[in-house]
Design goal:
alpha/beta, 50% helix, Alpha-Beta Plaits, Rossmann fold
Length: 571
Amino acid sequence: MKELLERKQGLHRSILIVDDEIIEREMLGVMLQDLFEVIYAGNGLQALDIIRSGVQKLSLIVLDLHMPELDGYGLLKAIRSDSELRRIPVIVLTAEKDSEVECLRMGAADFITKPYDAPEIIRARVSRSIELAEDSVIIHQTERDELTGLFNREFFFEYGKRLDAQNNHSPMDAVVFDVNRFRIVNELYGRPYGDHVLQTIGTTIHKLVQKTGGLACRSDSNAFFVYIPHNPDLSKRLPGVISQIQEAIGDPNISFRIGVDSDDGKPVCMEHRFDRARLACRKLRNTYATNFEFYDAELHSKELFAERLINDMDKALEEQQFQVYFQPKYDITGDTPRLTSAEALVRWFHPEYGMVSPGVFISLFEDNGLIHKLDRYVWDAAAAQVRDWRDRLGFRLPVSVNVSRVDIFDPTLARELDEILQRHDLTAAELLLEITESAYTENSQQIIDTVSALRALGYKIEMDDFGCGYSSLNMLTSMPMDALKLDMKFIRNIAKNPKDYRLVGIMIEIARLLEVPVIAEGVETAEQMELLKAIGCDIIQGYYFSKPLPAAEFEALIEKAQKEGENAHIG
């Protein structure tokens, strides 16, 4: 009934019968024509022309083995060697039992014996072969990444577990490939070029897996997972694999970082293996001395430490283990440096580990999304301190707070900032927002839209770490901001290295073109300050004036400013 209904609705499939015996192919066609649209070919060459001209139409091929010009074996081989044609199931016509095994090895789906069985048996065989082939196509499309053809993440782990079970958990290596700054590639060269890069990587990785055995998938936008039999010489082979991928891409500007969890004989589940490999891969961020890193005991120790910090975070917030420190910023455009604002910096005083470096927990919380909680804690504490200094000391000091890339993509960001201002009776000009340049370049249009909306509400935006995010000049002209903050690594050697000095001068000229002031952080000496002042830097932050201080100690700087008749500028 289902088959009859499909035919009435025009959903019947097309099949091709290939046989040089006219009577036999006509007999077979009569058996099938009530269910299928039947096409005929008298030999393999004729059939191949039909197949290639209508590859999307055919649902099945019924193929005789013995024909002139191109026999059934040759046609079957041609079909199976073509990635587009091999999806079409082939049923072989044969009276020879010995031929069945060879045809199965060549990819035949089923057999119809000569002389023919009853018509209902033949129709059932044909229908079943078509159904199985169509189900296979649907499964293939579901389990594969559309762009690269590799497994998607879910099927990758499912098949990986089966692979482990079938091979009695033989030693396997987990490898993570990640494309450095892939969002910048898309931004600068366009998404079609980015897709080409990913397709090329996927093709090369697929060839690697075919040679070694194992599985591969595209895990997310620019990361690939590879699960291969353990190789003790993998570290020696990886440079060759990297060269192979780069050669296939043909662009020396595309680079990779690779993390590996090499099998050490200990029973570890597949998912955790790749968590380890990703941890090793993350260690290579902002490192260009090597392309790959292996998970080891040191990373394992760091992993346990990181897990402990993650678990302790909520308790630390409740117990106020996080303390907000303030580092002053001085306006140096006049004859005397003038306290103009401060940056809020968080410190964690852990009851067991003591003071935990921000370089450890900030990046950790950014990776797992917990930075959202910490940022709001810091914003609220900084706003409370601004209000306290204003009410108790009569000094209005704007304070800048860091806004992470996680915050930028939060649709409630503006509302939460406004609630903090209302709670502490502040204006938007008293809470400055620092956003790193790398956040701008990750998804520039969304960042631009978010930052533009914040500026429309009165917030002042400082682009932090300018010079480290690989912005193009064209991108800079469209990025909304109120100040550029030079990364401290550019300041460190300006007194010793003329090239660094000239580079900072160029950055300041860019700021002049954009009509925004320049803030230099990491200034430690009077010589650095004088050089920066000479080339037009507006504001200085660094140990030359003061290290970050707790609020109580910072008040000494405020008292000094008051004695000198100052009041921090808000505007």
